Amino acid sequence: MSFLLGIDIGTSGTKTVLFDEAGNTIASSVEEYPLYQPNIGWAEQDPEDWWKATCMTIRQVIQKGGIDAADIKGVGLSGQMHGAVLLDKNYNVLRRSIIWCDQRSSAECDQITSLIGKERLIEITANPALTGFTASKILWVRNNEPQVYEKVSKILLPKDYIRFKLTGEFATEVSDASGMQLMDIPGRKWSDEVLTKLEIDKGMLGKLYESQEVTGTVNKEASSLTGLKEGTIVVGGAGDQAAGAVGNGIVKPGVVSSTIGTSGVVFAFSQNVSIDPKGRVHTFCHAVPNTWHIMGVTQGAGLSLKWFRDNFCIEEKRTAELMGIDPYMLMDKEAEKVAAGCSGLIYLPYLMGERTPHLDPNAKGVFFGLSAKHEKPDMVRAVMEGVVYSLKDCLEIIREMGVNVSEVRASGGGGKSPLWRQMQSDVFGTEITTINSSEGPALGVALLAGVGAGIYNSVTEACDKVISVKTRQQADMGLNSRYNKFYDIYKRLYISLKKDFADLSSIL
Fold first, then answer.
1. What angle do CA 435, 439, 444 make, to 5 degrees?
2. This prediction's pTM
3. pLDDT tens across 228-279, in order?
4. Distance of alpha carbon 155 from alpha carbon 195, whole angstroms
């Protein structure tokens, strides 16, 4: 029997999953690692932590699966997007990676916009300059740590550093590279114009592939560390969102995904390049050849609920540990007791600034409407509702761009919660479905590896063979009407607070 391996280098940990050809999960393993925040709005991780976690989880799934590593026909890589891994001429890591949610590079965004021009930048890269993207992080290091930048030989994304460690190859693929802001998105290639104007040497970047193409094979050293057979193919893979979309079957028009992980993402397939001229949503190359996707991102989705859990739900964590269950299950039970709208309590999930639709690194989290009547369960539900309102922001813009939305598939940690799924259905006014696998990005890149290995003829065929709808939840249109009233206030709150956010940031 043949097997496929999907590796997802996430923000909280690396998850490696072993699948058979039918997409069934044979074994999985997760290894966590720390996030470093040396200053407010900063976020860094150590690439060596990712590599250690990758080696450990690969070994564990091979052992758990009880298989011969020679039967693994391909490896796919997924990972958190936008992080900058800087290597010297000896290919050693120069500094911790500045990752996707870091907000320090607003001055560099202004610099990029000035050098290229606001409209021209969107024409080429399909997006305005953002603190989350890699280009501004590279310029921040050049501007603030010149002694580090002068030693840079290679610049890699998180998953592509793992590719280098597995294969010795410096490569990336179009979906993840789209988020570096160094690509010609319509042309699916590096932009010589952007690189020249930003004075970034193209030789520092990896060779660009389509997502299902073979980029290299497992080398001898990686084989000894991971247990994979030397010579096993490694395909391009995808950034976590495109990978999750493939793993959810978002590979044809009409089907949209709503993913609540650390961040929240609404992801829509597009046969053609479609760019929001206001830059509120991202247009990137999809992991399906010669297609694109539109993506709205809210920075602090699952992160908001995790923050609340870690700081205010100590009892729930202890009780869940004794019961052997996930503490989020107990938090769901608390939130279920609260009526929709939380008696006027509204939460803005801007703990790490915001992307869609505000593009504001200064935005902060807010509880609005708090009264003596409110208790902790109200706050739990308000956090969940606030995240869904932020996802509705994304969905509304995608609809405004003319994208047909016939089905929304929920995924990520939020997709596992029936309550959070129902909230999405009621707030969006749309049916919410889930599929037969919850492995998301790991499954997506395993399917890409299957295409690269010749097991499937195309990405679409792989999804058709493996993915099917498992659950359906219908919208309560009465609640939709009620939610819309709170959503209107939610939208106005940011407008009211925008200057206050900026003033506060100037003091900090």
1. 90
2. 0.86
3. 999 999 999 999 989 999 999 999 999 999 999 888 999 999 998 988 888 8
4. 13
Position 369 scores a pLDDT of 98
57 membership: H or E segment, kind and range: helix 47-65
Give the distance between the most distant pair of CA atoms in the chain: 64
3-state helix, strand, coil in the chain (%, to 5): 45, 20, 35
What's the rounded Cα separation, in Å, for the pair 303 and 306? 5
SS3 413: helix
Element holding 124 (H helix, E strand): helix 118-125
Query: For residue range 301-318, what is the model confidence (pLDDT) as tens digits?
Result: 999 999 999 999 999 999
Task: Give the side-chain half-sphere CA count within 13 A for 464.
Answer: 7
Angstrom distances, CA of residue 467 to CA of 13, 294, 499: 25, 22, 46
- Cβ of 372: how many Cβ atoms within 10 Å? 5
Catalytic residue ranges: 240
Q: Tell me if residue 68 falls in helix, strand or coil.
A: coil
| Crossing angle of helices 327-336 and 314-323, rounded to 10° | 120
Measured CA to CA, the distance from residue 48 to residue 161 in angstroms comes to: 9
* Helix 106-116, helix 134-144: angle, nearest 10: 110
Rounded CA-CA distance 351/306 in Å is: 11
Residue linked to tokens 């956010």: 501
Query: What is the rounded distance in angstroms from the CA atom of residue 112 to the CA atom of residue 128?
Result: 9
Place of tokens 């940011």: 494
Distances 153 to 79, 86, 109, 199, 357 between C-alpha atoms, Å: 22, 7, 23, 14, 35
At 75, list the tokens: 């490896």
Q: How far apart are CA 25 and CA 439, in angstroms?
A: 8
